[in-house]
Design brief:
The chain is mostly helical and 64 residues long. It is built from four helices and no strands. 64% of the residues lie in helices and 0% in strands. It is globular.
């Protein structure tokens, strides 16, 4: 029930979530994490993250 872009971006968002505590990613900003997951633009990353989780990346990371 979702389009292809949302389907792919949900996998990318989950990849970022899985790697929030990864020591190899500790030097990356949230935008850098989005780029590492394959997002080419900050706005697409933020919109997709909020659509999948209901929170912004920083809000989500604070709750962990």
């Amino acid at each position: 029930g979702v389009n292809f872009n949302h389907f792919v971006n949900s996998y990318r968002v989950n990849y970022v979530i899985e790697n929030f505590d990864n020591p190899e990613w500790s030097h990356l900003s949230l935008d850098g994490m989005g780029q590492q997951a394959g997002f080419r633009s900050r706005s697409t990353f933020l919109k997709s993250f909020k659509k999948v989780t209901g929170k912004t990346p920083s809000e989500y990371k604070k709750q962990l």
